[in-house]
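Final report, results section. Input specification for complex C-07:
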Amino acid sequence: MSSLSDKQVDMQLEDLTGWQRDGNSIVKTYHFSNFVEAMSFMNQAAFYAEALEHHPEWKNIYNIVEVRLTTNDTGGITSHDIRLAKRMEHIIQPKRL
Amino acid sequence: MSSLSDKQVDMQLEDLTGWQRDGNSIVKTYHFSNFVEAMSFMNQAAFYAEALEHHPEWKNIYNIVEVRLTTNDTGGITSHDIRLAKRMEHIIQPKRL
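Structure output:
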């Protein structure tokens, strides 16, 4: 696996509402109705992250979840980060993948 | 509910291994074996936090969970923070409460 080029990252982010590039990471802050909704999101994402063997950095404060995705092995953004971001979007807004 | 005095906080922290005061918060960084263990801890703590109606600020990176407890209503550390910290200790090291 290798890091995506800047152009590749930009293209992928066009389809990822609210996600932004921040250095070698992509980041998004999710707002939920309450703590239980926030934890439910984290749990759903956690199962996928574990299966993908690619894990987020994330911070929770009550109804807010700040997510940061990066790939330490390459020091950049890889397809794993994009896949995990897409899955998170799917969790909050289910649709055909 | 009112904030605990500095002396009260110091006394409580004597029984809370690894917890430290940081301004108006108490903080601890937990290290687990892996991501699943870290998420399991967060889930167990989350049920208690929700029941207590008092929620942590916390950040997870793979096997690490950084916890910060404070009480926004009083702008200080209250008995709720101490109770939640004690419960977290109980989760990682079950004993008679």
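Chain B has a mean pLDDT of 95. The interface with chain A takes residues 35-36, 39, 42-43, 46, 49-50, 55-62 of chain B (CB under 8 Å). This concludes the modelling results for the funded period.
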